[in-house]
Amino acid sequence: MLDGVSTPTPPPPPPPPVPGTRRGVLRRVLVAVGILAGAAGLGWVAGQAWWQWWSPAPTGFVYETAEGLRWIAEPVDAGSAQLFSATGQYVAIGSALGVLLGCVVAALTRGWELAGLAVGLVAAALAAVVMVTVGTDLSPPDPASLVEEAGAGAELRGALQVPGWSPHVAWPAGLLLGHLAVTLLAPRRPRGSSVGGEPVARHVGGGQRRDHVQRS
Fold first, then answer.
1. 171 backbone φψ class: left, alpha, beta (φ>0; ψ -120 to 50)
2. Structural element, H or E, at residue 27
3. What angle do CA 121, 94, 129 make, to 5 degrees?
């Protein structure tokens, strides 16, 4: 204090950066990339399984009707039932593998669950796209698009497809279920812990203390 005027206390310096922060961010990026790559592979397997379950494609013929040329499966009942079964098979496979994907995502993203869940939802959408692409590529083309070129009486095979958008919810719904199950049932790490022995900074009495938590 000089002449009754107090000298302001300078603010404390900012804490030094914690070593390992960049490594932690890099690890999360690598985990996210691995999840997306794994989801693409899972979608490929799902598409193959979907086609193998549904095939062989039903046979039908092009008929001249009042509405124009139309492809009709024969026998009608069995062929129509098989065409409709493609949607149920897609939902069954997508839901089951979505649950598996959700469990893996939750296990790999402990400590950053919300960001990990966002990555998981993107991965589920990617897997669904790959599954549909692979399955339909293995299938004959949609006979409805070939009736004009083929003409009445032509024999064509049915196509593996999923009408509408609602069945595609199977993958993200399964992922959410698996992610929720692991998040609720698996024990949580203590607060302030880290993965791989990376230091975690804690403020103690205005200072900073670094702890190392080793992987169990």
1. alpha
2. helix 21-54
3. 60
